[in-house]
Amino acid sequence: MAVGACTVVKLPYTLTKGVIVSSCYVVKGGYELTAGTCKLVYRLGGFTYRVARAPLDWHFTHDIDTVDGILPRDAIREGRVRRAPYTVKGTTYYPMSVDQAKDYSEEGIASWYGAESCGRTCMTANGEIFYPQGLTAAHKLLPLPVHVRVTNLENNRSVILRVNDRGPFPSIYNTSSGRRIIDVSSGAAKLLGFYRKGLCVVKVEVVQVKGE
User: What is the CATH number for 150?
Assistant: First the structure.
């Protein structure tokens, strides 16, 4: 499947609770088959997503020591990131399998991150360009990438996000930050209505993407 400089995918999708099925892997596979700065644009449930490979010399949004026992950039090159164990500041995390993730649903605290915290040219844990205004999120244990429905339980606003990053992790300045269940992009926080507040109580559910 060859992909041009920018490809728009307009397949019909339905979204239900569960795990992403193979039809979505075709969508995300397009940019992985093309080296360089190929961009992919696709739509799910009324939301638009941009995906592009980041240059491997860019900084990560969060520092990761190793992935699957090797350097994170090497793991990205070898395609070993999706659900490989990884280590951050001496703590090893073991992501869920795809089967385990399909029933994932959790309520807890969410925060957001953007250019204010990690700069304007950053790379996510799976090697994608981090777009602060995009619809993405960071999760410690879900396979990468996966899509989740995040609902702000304080105002009932909901958005579907592409999980393509790892975090949140405990900070030396705020050890309780590691207890958050998800960090969303600043753009997603604005849609969910908690950008100015900084934190909110959310429900996170893995959604199934299935071609009609």
Answer: 2.40.40.10
